[in-house]
Amino acid sequence: MTLAIFGTMIVLLLLGFPMMIPLIAGSLIGFVALFGGFGQLDTMVQQILGGIRPASLIAVPMFIFAADIMTRGQSANRLIDLVMAFVGHLKGGLAISTAGACTMFGAVSGSTQATVVAVGGPLRPRMLKAGYNDSFVLALIVNASDIAFLIPPSIGMIIYGVVSGTSISELFIAGIGPGLLILLFFSIYSYIYAVRNHVPVEPKATWAERGQAVKRALWPLGFPAIIIGGIYGGIFSPTEAAAACVLYALFLEMIVFREMNFRQLYATAKSTGLITAVVFILVGAGQAFSYVISFAQIPQQILGGIGIDEMGQYGVLFTISIAFFVGCMFVDPIVVILIFVPIFAPVVQSVGLDPVLVGTIITLQVAIGSATPPFGCDIFTAIAVFKRPYIEVVKGTPPFVFMLLAVAVLLIFFPQIALFLRDLAFAK
Amino acid sequence: MTLDDKHAPNPGPDVITAAVDVDDDIDDSRYVSGLPGLLGVIDAGIARIEAVLLAVGVLLMALNTMANVVGRYLLGESIFFSEELNQALIILITFAGISYAARHGRHIRMSAFFDAMSFHLRKTMMVVIAAVTAAAMFLLTWYSLDYLLAQASRGRLLPALQIPQWWIIIWVPLGFFLTGLQYALTAIKNLIDKDIWLSTSTLEGYDDSAEEEI
Amino acid sequence: DTWRYAFEEALEEVQGKFAQKFKEEVEANSDHEVQLFPFGTLGESADIMEQAQSGILQFVDQSPGFTGALIPEAQVFFVPYLLPADRDQLFSFFRNSKAIHELFPPLYAEQGLELLTMFPEGEVMMTTTEAVASPADLNEVKFRVMTNPLLVESYRAFGATPTPLPWGEVYGALQTGIIQGQENPAFFIESTKMYEVTDHITRPGHNNFTTAVMANKDFYDGLSDEEKQVVQNAIDTAFEFIIEYQTGLTEESLTKIQEAKPEMTITTLTDEQRAPFMATAESVEQEFLKIGGDQAQAILDQMKADLAAAAGG
Ligand code: NA
Ligand code: NA
Prior knowledge:
The complex is a heterotrimer of chains A (about 425), B (about 210) and C (about 325). By secondary structure, chain A is mainly alpha-helical. Chain A has 23 helices and no strands. Chain B is an all-alpha fold. Helix content of chain B is about 65%, strand content about 0%. In chain B, a hairpin with a 2-residue loop joins β1 (about 195-200) and β2 (about 200-205). Residues about 1-25 and about 205-214 of chain B have low confidence and may be disordered. Chain C is of the alpha/beta class and about 325 residues long. Chain C has helices at about 15-30, 45-55, 65, 85-95, 100-110, 150-160, 165-175, 185-190, 215-220, 225-245, 250-260, 270-280, 280-290, 295-310, and strands spanning about 1-5, 35, 60, 115-130, 140-145, 160-165, 180-185, 200-205, 210-215, 265-270. In chain C, strands 1, 2, 3, 4, 5, 6, 7, 8, 9 and 10 form a ten-stranded mixed beta sheet that branches. The termini of chain C are far apart. The model of chain C has no long low-confidence stretch (mean pLDDT about 95). Classes of the chains: A mainly alpha (about 425), B mainly alpha (about 210), C alpha/beta (about 325). The structure holds sodium ion (2 copies). One sodium ion binds near residues 370 and 375 of chain A. Chain B: It is a multi-pass membrane protein. Chain B: Belongs to the TRAP transporter small permease family. Chain B: This is TRAP transporter small permease protein. Chain B: Keywords: Cell inner membrane, Cell membrane, Membrane, Transmembrane, Transmembrane helix, Transport.
């Protein structure tokens, strides 16, 4: 049954069906096979609704909305002008700033999808104008957003911590090292890319021009203040910060800059709703599919057959990495963590692995998986927001996935990348 | 964008709209229903309602979330139904949105292999895709109605709002049904028209911008 | 056959321990296999409940607090200071209560469920960023509670500002200071690491987290008498096991917390300190009678009679 399901899904996807159909078909086959008919399909509907219901997902439409208002008005451009005034003359400066912005935004929002939208939305047009190729830009945005999962706060780490009984504070600190390492790799790659593709640089801005840019950006600098100050200052949850950004963006564009009227507000809200629907139906269908996998205990069957108990530490770590990577290519990351972690828990303990290291590796794999074809949710989001074909969005991905996997391998052989800061902070 | 001769369209008004609007906002006043006569008027009306629900849903979500913050800090009182209201809104947005997206050919698909096929194969495939998608949507309409009725009979209440939980999911069968209807119409339109249609109002062919053709 | 059993916690938490024991017993005494589905693997609490109602799952563990959306009377377990703090009295109550064994089963049956047992999971404690000794200390404290009208009412009566928050955001919100407190049994505070982001544990003795195991009614009625006996025996064995397991669990969890974070204070309120908290129970009871469904009064009266009997015996 497993093969029939995955086979059907991939064929339907390649034939050009709307992407919800492979996911719906996969779960339909599963439900019919598991329950011997159509009798329990109402549970499939329940699961689709369960997929779109989590409160933390509300941050996604809110950030889409805020980013769209900022991009249509002046806020986004003024912020980017500010960045450009300082890094525009450097090779790859804009690309590196984009990766940095994804890291920072991801650090506070905790959502990879929200990062794709909020950072990618305003920065992509500028990068295209600056001479970067679209497939590079899309891949950079989608993959740099992964860092959101590693830098605290991270929902993935909280779930792992709860399921495995590991200290969440230690996990949070352990994620920082690998997160920054990924940022470093992406920055180096961006630099090399810019040099090899002769992406032009702007003339170096004078200090007077920079001062001017800062002045123009004063109002829009309220956004980072709301997000970073609001969340770390204990005023907002990430979801509330997203809604606060919407209202602040409306205040700036409708009242301060007078760039937006009610007609445009309506159009922006509608467009946000449309993108949200297109992405969320996939999240919902993905949840129904996850249910089938979970109910049929497919992971347990596959893992039961490979004899993980005989492996050493490295064998276990590689098996875990592969399992999570493959799992997240098809199924929602949170569900993968919930199902896989208890299965691996005994062997992790018996070979004496540090659960914090395992958690960091799992979080990294989960992040990579959500940006990886065929069914990564960040890819759906990028397609819906940027209105680019699927293939265009994933074309530039391989070098990034390669770098992410390289970090995963480095992490396995040099656990100190993750554990150094943890040991320092917790004096171990 | 330049269309090659293979998909050269008959440039009716809705075609131009579709081409221009692909990267821009959808102008609902220029939406032309795929249905004839009175049915077409009703359909265009539904399209307008969907659009309004999407926009209002998103705005309410922002206000609701902020109201909770304001309540917490200024009034020292959290709004307990805030989370449930957002749940209701996200369900509304998703299910009003999927049929609106189907109407305007906005559902995400992977078209790389599809685009490489010949015109006739593409046309046949589009009929199959639209018909199968419509069938899947109608199936889900039936079972979401089933789920809705089961919920109504169980009488589960939303803890904070203290209203029956099924009230917030009535959009689900409706959304699936209207989406199925759009795909069914798309299949028919592809059968009777000489061009390939992604939806009743959108010609196939992503807005292939210049760089893709290099 | 394969019987499927879903619950609201992880495999190594109390509901998971109960389920594991049940599985072990059923499989030892019959040809049936029991598959266990911990928290989240088949959806949220409300989802697994619906799946048990529609017969996809044969068994489900759901706490009455959640069941309250379906069976309002079940919320009686949120009335503070109703259940006794004394362990022997508590266990005696759960073993012998007429409310649990006679009044509740028909209410569950109306929802297509066979109520198999109810058991306590542990004394509910507050974890807060500031020490709590009286209701005054909760003034202005944003306290995360589940979205349940009675819990909200309880904490409002205690003087706090009850704040709803999805469980996934609680850890982060305590860390950044959006909220300053939450409540849970000790084992859950330990396993979910809530102590990492708070500094004080307070034991007001106001409640013991209760949960219930049920079966799909059609499934259960369709079992042979022999099979029903296997299920009942497994439930009884698991019940005794979990009562045994509980004794010491709270202290063990608190010791682990203390080891992991020596500066954590753990305070059991004295009877004198508890008095002002207890004084608020009456208002919550009134609220329960208002929203607790048709049988609210009957359930509450019977519970009180059962508790008096447990205290006397
Ligand atoms: Na993060
Ligand atoms: Na994925």
